Amino acid sequence: MLTLAARWSCRRPWLVIAAWTALFLIALVGAARIGDVLTGSLGRPDPTSDSAQVARIADVVPGRSGQQLLVVIENTDSDAFREDQDTYVQRLGARLDAVPGVSSVVDAADALRGEPGFADPGGLRILSVSLSSSDSEEAMDMVEPVRAATSEIDRPAGTRVDVTGGPAVNHDIVATGEQDTRRAELLALPLTAVALVLAFGAFGAVLVPLLVGALSVVVALGALYFLHDTTGLFLNVFSQTIASMMGLAVGIDYSLIMVTRFRENLGARRDPALAAHGTVLTAGRTVVYSGLTVAISMAALLVPDSLLLRSLGITGILTVGTAVLLSVTLVPAILTLAGERINAPQWLSRPMLRRVDARVRFWERFARRVMRRPVLGALCLGVLLTVLALPMLAMQVGTPGAEVLPERAESRQGAESLQRAGMAGATSPLDVAVDTGREGGFYDPQAVIAVDELTREILQIDGVGAVVGPTTGPESIQTADYAAVYSTGEAARYSELGALANQTVATGGRHVVLVVFPDALPTTESTRALTEAIRAKAADLGGGPLSSVLVGGQAQEALELFDDAWSGFPVAIGVTLVASFLLLAAALRSLLLPLKAVLLNLTSVLASFGILVMVFQWGWLGEFFAPTTFGATTQLDFLVPILLFAVVFGLSMDYELFLMTRIQEFHHGGANTEDATARALGRTAPLITWAAAIMISVFAAFVLVPTPYMKQLGLPLAVSIAIDATLVRMVLVPAFMKLAGEWNWWMPSWLTRALPRLPDEHGGTEMPLGATPPIPPNGRHVDAGAP
């Protein structure tokens, strides 16, 4: 395949460039529309799950037929509303009620005021806007019309209005994620350009990696859009972030490898076409296998039964695959046409090229120093990496909420207003669906009494702030009064009870839906504890007139989707480790080297987890990295460690492959393990260092944007890549190679025969990965050695 790619790219460069140009223009259409198909939700619940069943029951409750938004109106001047503000709230409620897609509007603050778990909201009003649709995507589409309606009525002085709630948070996660991803891309390009100029010393050589990085992002996003359009592929907003991060990072890195090899070939006075051809057969082969190792890490996310993880896995595979294809086809085509112009300007590039040998000698001497005291080096770094990794034991993860948004996001500001008023739980209620077993069953006096008893028991649970149900009217009404009123059909005559019944009793009277509000901003574990406590209370009451009790609502749905994804994470880890071990065993023909690679890569991953906890959970580096979060929540977005593992492990394996294939090459050439390691490190260390610097530049750009989850991804990625490319590759690898000696190359004969040999660039299977390609039939030798 590489021979074919080399032949086409070098013989017909303009055709290859034209084909990629056409593909880019097509992909640009989809990439420009990717924001229209992204979602902030965690997936689609299983139709048989508790939350899905409760949602179907809630759909037939007349007063709350769909999802809900909260419109928070705050008096910023005092703790009490003025008369003109009260009038404004009434006018706003009437305007919202007229918005197409809104089924009802009620004053939720009035309903919750005085409940035992909530403070008096004082200068705060909450309009609960029930939507006609229960679909999360359609609910997100309603956020902008509702916000537009709030701005149509003149606000009295000192009045602040914010739209929040689950659909609004998801809407803002998508909107801010799209904006800040583009901002990070614009920051990353100049940062990487500076790193490339320092690496190449030539402006001409800089343009190719930047072009490939940008094309990788656009083509991957375009492919995702068209996949969604044709197959309905679920796409979380993280997909855009991962495509941008990985597209820029690996696209620039892989083309860096290609350009570096091409410049070496040109230095041997070969014509551009032949130099580019040799580049594909050597550096291109390393790029392909490096891309394969990253793709393995991302493909492992396809294994768990989670729409969310599968969409992220597909995103990673598409992005890396695009970068590899661009590197082995478009890059050599451009290099063939560029020729010596790739080194322009000569006054800048020549001095840097002359210093190449000095850099090689420096790193070779460094490796020999490490191998003189391998135990000391391994122990010192082992202790350091262990200290960095230990905080991961305190990691707490959960589902994302308004706290993952930048402070400018309206839904976050509304949630903060609720938190200040002691009503943070209003954004994340649980729905408790009670089944009486038959149509009209609730109107039986015994059923009303049982529902009221369950309501009172739930109110006694720690963490419950308020419950809204058919029997939560004025305190003056006793349980027997509720039973009498509902059993005789007189509830409609009492305005308060009629409104409660309309919001909580399903059409037909078989089901009742109690709305349970937590007394604080919930975490995943507090939601789990509350759900289990409600189920326990229902079980304690026994059967009687209530045949079943189910817990659902947005918070419970998020908990179920979290469990599906997080429980599959260990499986994804196992698949990644095994697949990577087998690939490296086949490539390196060794058992010890793949085992060492897997363990060292895990140290980089665990260090990234420790950094994540120290900075974003413990807040050690202040507000720049961990902006103030309301509610004092300490849980991290559970997607961040999953993505950190997949990306860090895959990229670390990249560097491992760069170094180990060159060690293997020298060892097969007759050098002993120590000499092969020193010479290989001398040749690859500059490349690995600059490749890491470029990746760090990309990830640092995501640290500089306001969105917290992008900071949580960017900072650990940047630090872990720096650790892996320096401490791990430059110290731990040579120390290990020295200690293991010739045992590094041991493999049982039966396993040697069982494992397939990876094909060489001419379609054979005998040449070790990274070895010098043979002289072609025309008798002209192509440059040797993968980077």
Automatic annotation (TrEMBL):
Signal peptide: none annotated. Residues 51-375, 405-748 form the Membrane transport protein MMPL domain. GO terms for cellular component: plasma membrane. The lineage of its organism: Bacteria, Bacillati, Actinomycetota, Actinomycetes, Micrococcales. The chain crosses the membrane at residues 186-203, 210-227, 233-259, 280-302, 314-338, 375-394, 565-586, 598-618, 638-658, 687-705. It is found in: Cell membrane. This is Putative membrane protein mmpL11. Coiled coil: none annotated. It comes from Nostocoides australiense Ben110. Residues 762-787 are annotated as: Disordered. It is a multi-pass membrane protein. Keywords: Cell membrane, Membrane, Transmembrane, Transmembrane helix.
